[in-house]
Design brief:
By secondary structure, this protein is α+β, with helices and mostly antiparallel strands. It contains 17 helices and 14 strands. The strands form 2 sheets. Strands 1, 2, 3, 4, 5, 6, 7, 8, 9, 10, 11 and 12 form a 12-stranded mixed sheet that branches. Strands 13-14 form a two-stranded antiparallel sheet. Helix 5 packs across helix 12, helix 6 crosses helix 9 and helix 10 packs parallel to helix 13. The longest helix is centred in the N-terminal third of the chain and has 41 residues.
C-alpha cells in the first residue's frame, strides 16, 4: 500500500481544485506517519505503540493539515499563473512567426481592423465629448443644470433657455435647493479697431459662475462679485488659455495688460485653464463681467421684458432636480406676482447642460449617435471580413492542425493558439487605428463641428474604449477558427489535401459573406440618404443671396447725430465701386427680429407659425434689393417713406 502511495506521490498530476489539494495533503500526512511507524517498528517497538508515537512526534494534526493546505494552494496558484502567462507568451511568439511568414494576408487583416477600430475610436471621442463628459473643467457636471422657462410669450406658448436677469436674482436670493446660481451669455465682439479689427467669441458671466462650475484659474484670478455690480462693474477680463497662447505667446507678464473689446479697454486679471469654455462646448476667447455687456433694456436688472441670458444652477447635496425645479418655479412666480402676468403662470425646469434652446436634445447629439452607429456597422463588416479570411487560412492549415492533435496537443490549447493569432492581429490593427484616429479625428471634428472646443485627440477614456474594442474584436474574430478547430476530424485532416475546402467551413464562410452583404447594404442605403439630405439642405432657398451679402455692425459716435451718421454711411457705401447696393436693417436676415402680438381687423385669431412668431424688424429703402429678396406682390420701401409718412 505504501509503495502505491509513493508511486502516486512522484507521478501524480498536480491538483487543480481545493478538494484535490486537501486530498493530496492528507495523503502526504498519512505517508509521513506510515514511514515513521515502519522506522519505529524496525527498532523493536510494537506496532500500536509505534503508530501512537509517530502521531505524537508529528504534532497537532489539524493545524499541520491547515498549514500544509494553505501552502499547497498558494504554490498551485503561483504555478498556475506562471504557466498560464508562459503559455500565452509562447502562443504569441509562435503566432508572430507564423504571421511573418504570411505577410500579405496579415497586412490586409490589420488594415481592415484598423479601419473599423479607427472609425469607432474617432466617433466615441466625439460622442463622449458631446454627450457623456460635459464641458471641460466642470466638476460633477451631472449636478449642474440649465434653467428653462415655459410660459406664454410674444411668439406663443413655449419653452426657452433665455430669460432675464431678474430670474437669476430671484433664484439666487430666494431658493435653498441650489449650491450656486449664475448667469451668462455668449456672443461675438469686435477685438481691436481699424483694418485689423476682427470678431472673437466672448462670454459675459456673473462672478459666481466660476465657483459654481468648480474651475480654478491657470494664471491670476477670476473677477469677483464686487467687480460685477449692475451699473457699477469694473472693466476686467479673463482670457481663455488658447487666446493667451495665440495672442500673447503665453507671456507670464500678461496680467495687467489691456485688451480692447469694442471701444472699451479691459484690464487682464487672469487666464482660464486649457479647454475651459464655461457651461457651453463652443470656444470662448475672453470672459468679461456680465454687467459690462449688452444692455437690452434701460431697466435690465429688474425688468421682465428682456430675455437675453442663460441661468445655470448647481443642485444642493441630496436635492433632486424635480424638487429644485418646484422651488424655483415658486420663487419665479412669487417674484412675478403683480409684476408680469405671463411670468406669474410660468414653469421652470432644470435640464442637463447638453440640452438645446427649447429643452430638446441638440441636433449634434443625434448626428453623433447616428455616426457612431455607422462606425459600429463598419467594425462589424470588418470583423466578418477578417473572420472569413481566417477561416480560409484554416483550410490551408488543416493538415498542420491534425498533426498537432496527433502529437497530443489538447483542443483547448489549440483554440487558445488560434485566439492568440487573432488577438495579435487586433493589437496591430489597434496601433494603426490610433494613428488614424489621431490624424483623421481632428479633421472630422473640425469638419463636423468647427465651433466646438475640442480637447486632446486621444484622451484617457478614448484610449480605454479603443483597448476594450480591440479586446472584444480579437476574441470575436478568433472565435470562428477556434470553434472550427474543435470539430476537426483527425483522420480526415491527416489525409486532406491543399485543395479541399470542407463543407461545414464553406457554409460558415457563406454565412459570413451574407452578413457582410447585409451590413454593407444598410450602410450604403444610410449613406445615400445622408448624401441626399445634405444635398437638400445645401440647396434650400433662403430667399436671400447670402454669398454676396456682407453684414456690418457698427458703434455710433455719441457726438454725431444718429440720422446723419447712417445717411452718410449709406451714401459712402453706395458710391463704392465694389458695392452694388446698401441698406440699413435692425438685425440680419433670419435673425434679429422681435416677437409681437399681431391683430388683423376682422380676424379673431391668427394661425401659429411653425417656427414661432409673429416677428417684426425694421429696414430702410433698398433693403430687399440688397439682400437679394424678390417681392412677389406689391413693392418695397421708397425713399422719403418714414415716421412722417403713411405707415
Amino acid at each position: 500500500m505504501s509503495g502505491r502511495r509513493e508511486i502516486r506521490r512522484w507521478f501524480r498530476l498536480r491538483p487543480r481544485t481545493p478538494e484535490s489539494v486537501a486530498r493530496e495533503v492528507d495523503e502526504e500526512i498519512d505517508l509521513h506517519i506510515e514511514l515513521r511507524e515502519r522506522e519505529l517498528v524496525l527498532r523493536g517497538m510494537p506496532w500500536h505503540e509505534a503508530h501512537a508515537e509517530a502521531a505524537r512526534r508529528f504534532g497537532e494534526m489539524a493545524r499541520a493539515r491547515l498549514l500544509l493546505q494553505r501552502a499547497a494552494t498558494e504554490r498551485e496558484r503561483r504555478m498556475s499563473i506562471r504557466e498560464w502567462l508562459g503559455g500565452w507568451a509562447q502562443d504569441f511568439r509562435y503566432s508572430a512567426r507564423a504571421l511573418t511568414r504570411e505577410r500579405l494576408p496579415a497586412i490586409v487583416i490589420v488594415l481592415t481592423l484598423a479601419l473599423g477600430l479607427g472609425a469607432n475610436t474617432i466617433m466615441f471621442g466625439i460622442v463622449d465629448h458631446l454627450l457623456l463628459r460635459g464641458p471641460a473643467h466642470v466638476a460633477a457636471a451631472d449636478q449642474v443644470r440649465r434653467v428653462y422657462v415655459t410660459q406664454e410669450q410674444f411668439s406663443g406658448y413655449g419653452t426657452s433657455e433665455t430669460t432675464g436677469y431678474i430670474t437669476y436674482t430671484l433664484l439666487r436670493d430666494n431658493t435653498s435647493s441650489f449650491a450656486g446660481v449664475a448667469a451668462y451669455r455668449t456672443s461675438t465682439a469686435r477685438l481691436g479697431s481699424g483694418v485689423s479689427a476682427r470678431e472673437v467669441p466672448v462670454g459675459w458671466s456673473t462672478a459666481d459662475m466660476f465657483p459654481l462650475l468648480g474651475v480654478e484659474p491657470q494664471v491670476g484670478r477670476f473677477y469677483t462679485a464686487a467687480e460685477d455690480r449692475p451699473r457699477d462693474a469694473r472693466n476686467v477680463a479673463v482670457l481663455s488659455h488658447g487666446f493667451w497662447q495665440s495672442e500673447y505667446g503665453g507671456a507670464a507678464d500678461v496680467l495687467g495688460r489691456t485688451v480692447s473689446i469694442g471701444d472699451v479697454d479691459y484690464s487682464i486679471i487672469g487666464v482660464a485653464p486649457p479647454g475651459f469654455t464655461g457651461p457651453e462646448l463652443e470656444r470662448v476667447s475672453i470672459w468679461l463681467p456680465f454687467s459690462t455687456g449688452f444692455e437690452p433694456h434701460p431697466e435690465w436688472p429688474t425688468t421682465w421684458n428682456a430675455r437675453w441670458l442663460h441661468v445655470i444652477t448647481r443642485l444642493g447635496e441630496g436635492v433632486s432636480p424635480d424638487a429644485a425645479a418646484a422651488e424655483a418655479t415658486m420663487a419665479y412666480r412669487a417674484g412675478a406676482e403683480g409684476q408680469h402676468e405671463r411670468a406669474a403662470e410660468g414653469v421652470l425646469s432644470l435640464l442637463p447642460l447638453r440640452y438645446g434652446p427649447e429643452g430638446e436634445e441638440p441636433a449634434e447629439a443625434a448626428v453623433a449617435r447616428w455616426l457612431m452607429g455607422v462606425s459600429v456597422i463598419v467594425l462589424l463588416i470588418a470583423a466578418a471580413n477578417v473572420m472569413n479570411l481566417l477561416l480560409a487560412r484554416m483550410v490551408r492549415r488543416r493538415r498542420e492542425i491534425a498533426v498537432r492533435l496527433a502529437l497530443g496537443i489538447s483542443r483547448g490549447r489549440l483554440a487558445r493558439l488560434l485566439v492568440s493569432e487573432s488577438m495579435l492581429l487586433a493589437i496591430a490593427g489597434l496601433a494603426c487605428a490610433l494613428a488614424l484616429a489621431y490624424w483623421g479625428g481632428q479633421a472630422i471634428r473640425v469638419a463636423l463641428l468647427p465651433d466646438v472646443q475640442w480637447g486632446a485627440a486621444l484622451g484617457g477614456r478614448t484610449l480605454l474604449f479603443a483597448a476594450a474594442a480591440t479586446l472584444i474584436s480579437g476574441l470575436v474574430i478568433g472565435l470562428a477558427p477556434a470553434l472550427q478547430s474543435r470539430r476537426n476530424d483527425l483522420t480526415r485532416g491527416l489525409r486532406s489535401g491543399a485543395g479541399e475546402t470542407g463543407g461545414r467551413r464553406a457554409g460558415v464562410r457563406s454565412a459570413l459573406t451574407i452578413v457582410q452583404a447585409a451590413f454593407s447594404l444598410v450602410l450604403l442605403v444610410g449613406a445615400g440618404l445622408f448624401v441626399r439630405s445634405l444635398w437638400n439642405v445645401s440647396n434650400v432657398d433662403l430667399g436671400i443671396d447670402a454669398d454676396r451679402v456682407l453684414a456690418i455692425w457698427t458703434t455710433l459716435d455719441e457726438e454725431m447725430p444718429r440720422d446723419v451718421f447712417f445717411r452718410d454711411a449709406i451714401a459712402h457705401l453706395r458710391a463704392h465701386p465694389d458695392v452694388e447696393a446698401a441698406a440699413l436693417a435692425l438685425g440680419t436676415p433670419l435673425q434679429g427680429g422681435f416677437g409681437v402680438t399681431v391683430r388683423v381687423p376682422g380676424r379673431d385669431s391668427i394661425p401659429q407659425m411653425p417656427g414661432g412668431g409673429q416677428f417684426i424688424t425694421a429696414a430702410s429703402p433698398g433693403y430687399f434689393e440688397t439682400v437679394g429678396t424678390s417681392i412677389v406682390r406689391g413693392r418695397g420701401f421708397e425713399e422719403g417713406e418714414g415716421a412722417a409718412s403713411e405707415p
